[in-house]
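Hi Y.,

Following your request, here is the sequence exactly as I used it, all 191 residues.
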Amino acid sequence: MNCKHCNKECKSPNSLRNHERLCKENPGRDIANTLAARIKANRKVNCQFCNKELAFSNLKKHTKTCLSNPVVKEERAKVCPVCETVFYTASATCSYACSNKHFRSGLMNGNWKGKDYRNIAKINHTMECIICGENRIVAVHHYDENHMNNAPANLVPLCPTHHQYVHSRYKDLVMEQIHKYVVEQNKRSFA
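Below is the corresponding structure, written out as tokens. Let me know if you'd prefer a different format.
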């Protein structure tokens, strides 16, 4: 199948028909409609809300998402749960900083331990050994040896060495100071 105007070979009747319609050698070719469509598609217009210059073919889509459009702005408006500012993106918070605060702390954090005795001790005690003052590596000792009793008065911060003392034959070297600390903590909590 060859074009009757330029003798170009086409593979199917549809491609032949389309080629002949737009062939450069065709004196009555249908270029007026094609050219008008191309001009219309590439015509530049300004958004009525933000005054951004766009191709005419993109105007409708842009208008539906333009944040200067009051309808879109009202539909998309959200309040950040951290800083309470109004924002318009699809995310849950207004910024990376707020996202870190919102998702990486408390119950939303995958590493959150909840009522873990270490967290309770960190909140209620200065995390340093009450014997030597070590503050880099601190263990938490249950004073009454009951691991189900996570009351702040029952938790004692100790370095690993002095914690080991409590659970060994050297217990008597540290128990007096631990007992004083627990009594002092109980006085503070009831004062």
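The beta strands are 44-46, 53-55, 78-79, 86-87, 139-142, 155-158.

Thanks again,
Q.
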